[in-house]
Amino acid sequence: MNYNKLPNEKVLNETIENIKSRGINVILVDNRNDALEKVKSLIPKNSEVYNGSSTTLHEIGFVDYLDNNEHGWNNLHEKILKEKDQAKQTELRRKNVTAEYFLGSVNAIAKTGELVSCDASGSRVTAYPFAAKNLILVSGINKITSSLLNAIKRVREYAYPLEDERAKKAYGFSSTIGKWVIIEREIFKDRTTLILVKEKLGL
């Protein structure tokens, strides 16, 4: 099964409507540059901002933009990097998932509207269900699958093997499928926004 192809217009439109019906805001943009500009527009100055590890956020330029400190946000990630004590770093990561604005991506999207995310430790996905005040997710439309079952399969058969290889190169050890979050419905109005990009992005 090809887990990285771009869906046709009909499937894309159906997916967007199904996601919206689950209480999640959807913003469709043409490319990664537009995605970054949309992220900038959604976060007010002086807001607390934290993000999970995400290839997609790197690809749209968000990580570099956050690092340049010209955004006017309270960059919680920067404070973690300044802390050299490993135990204190871990504690800061736990606290920072409650940021005003948490950014990340998803590993798969079901055409039926569910958003599927997974990571090894849970340090990223733990913010998704409730902890963060506002959740902004960015994803390429290549992550859309035909069903929730195939979204889960995409993680196991496509995203995880790629992440495992990335982890080996970056950290010298394997990754694992650890903690899952499936967003089936958002009951808090305007809390969760998905920026869908008409490009292949992420794993």
Class based on secondary structure composition and strand pairing? alpha/beta
The order of strands across the largest sheet is 1-10-7-4-2-3
Report on the biggest sheet.
6 strands, parallel
Average pLDDT, all residues: 96
- H/E topology pattern: HEHEHHEHHEEEEEHEE
Shape: globular
**Are there runs of 5+ residues with pLDDT below 50, and where?**
none
Could you give me the name of the CATH homologous superfamily?
A: NagB/RpiA/CoA transferase-like
In percent, how much strand structure appears in the residues?
A: 15-25%
What gyration radius follows from the Cα positions, in whole Å? 16 Å
Residue share in helix: 25-40%
CA(first)-CA(last) distance? 15 Å
The domain count comes to 1
The first-level CATH class is given as Alpha Beta
Could you state the oligomeric state of the chains shown? Answer: single chain
CATH topology: Rossmann fold
Total count of helical runs of at least 4 residues? 7
Task: Describe the model.
The chain is an alpha/beta fold and 203 residues long. The protein has a single domain (9-197), classed as 3-Layer(aba) Sandwich (Rossmann fold). It has seven helices and ten strands. A hairpin with a 4-residue loop joins β5 and β6 (115-119). α5 packs antiparallel against α6 (86-96).
Briefly, what is this?
By secondary structure, the chain is of the alpha/beta class. The chain contains 7 helices and 10 strands.
